[in-house]
Design brief:
- Helices cover 33% and strands 22% of the residues.
- It has a seven-stranded mixed β-sheet, covered by helices on one side. A two-stranded antiparallel sheet has the order 8-9.
- It starts with a helix and ends in a 17-residue tail after the last strand.
- The chain is globular.
- Strand 4, helix 5 and strand 5 form a beta-alpha-beta unit.
- The chain has a single domain, classed as 3-Layer(aba) Sandwich (Rossmann fold).
- It has seven helices and nine strands; from the N terminus they run H-E-H-E-H-E-H-E-H-E-H-E-E-H-E-E.
């Protein structure tokens, strides 16, 4: 039995998920609509006015607010947030438009159980204004990345990426919409793999059990046949 088979044979179904949001929660909605293999989902927001809270409640999902404005600094907020999260004993914590930089202590507390989606093909264009940066630099391919969170912002073992071409008439808004469509596809897929026990982080590389690997090269712009 090879190493890949051993990883696949050891998978176990995980049941509990916490989703952290700050705003409209479009990626959260994609996760809720995906009918993931979990029996318990909780949505937590640092923003009491986050539109995503109503979306979750309409779907019968439990919600909670931990307002960051009620805390004097990032560490005290992170401590309070972690206490609430731990009360649900989640197998996975998902950042879905959670607009707070988390402390190293918080990230390390949930090592290999905390994932994020970023609107660029990491390690290119970390931080904000990724679409504007991609257009400014003249890259031909842009996209999004699902990754495990580490103390370094927008960095960590990559689980899944989706790429889209940048077209001549693209604006920042048009490109963002094209990337967001892919985010709504790949994020539920990555979370599903985690919940099914199909991800293994080995030496900063994520292995995925039972997927088809194709020897395919992508070109942008497309090359003539």
């Amino acid at each position: 039995m090879n190493r890949q088979q051993l990883l696949c044979d050891s998978r176990s179904l995980m049941k509990s998920l916490v989703i952290l949001i700050s705003g409209r929660g479009s990626n959260m909605k994609a996760l809720l609509d995906a009918k993931l293999p979990t029996e318990n989902i909780t949505v937590i927001s640092n923003n009491p006015k986050a539109a995503g809270l109503a979306v979750a409640e309409e779907r019968g999902v439990q919600t909670l607010v931990v307002n960051h404005r009620n805390y004097s600094d990032r560490v005290s907020f992170d401590t309070a947030l972690a206490e609430k999260i731990d009360g649900y004993q989640p197998d996975l914590i998902v950042l879905a438009g959670f607009m707070r930089i988390l402390s190293d202590r918080f990230v390390n507390r949930y090592q290999n159980r905390l994932i994020n989606i970023h609107p660029s093909l990491l390690p290119s264009f970390p931080g904000l204004k990724t679409h504007a940066s991609a257009l400014h630099e003249g890259v031909k391919i842009h996209g999004c990345t699902v990754h495990f969170v580490t103390p370094k912002v927008d960095y960590g073992p990559i689980i899944l990426q989706a790429a889209v071409p940048i077209l001549p008439d693209d604006t920042e808004q048009i490109l963002a919409a094209r990337v967001l469509q892919q985010e709504h596809y790949v994020y539920p897929q990555a979370v599903r793999w985690f919940l099914e026990g199909r991800l293994k982080n080995i030496e900063n590389r994520v292995e995925i059990c039972e997927t088809t690997t194709r020897n395919t090269v992508l070109y942008s712009p497309g090359l003539p046949e």
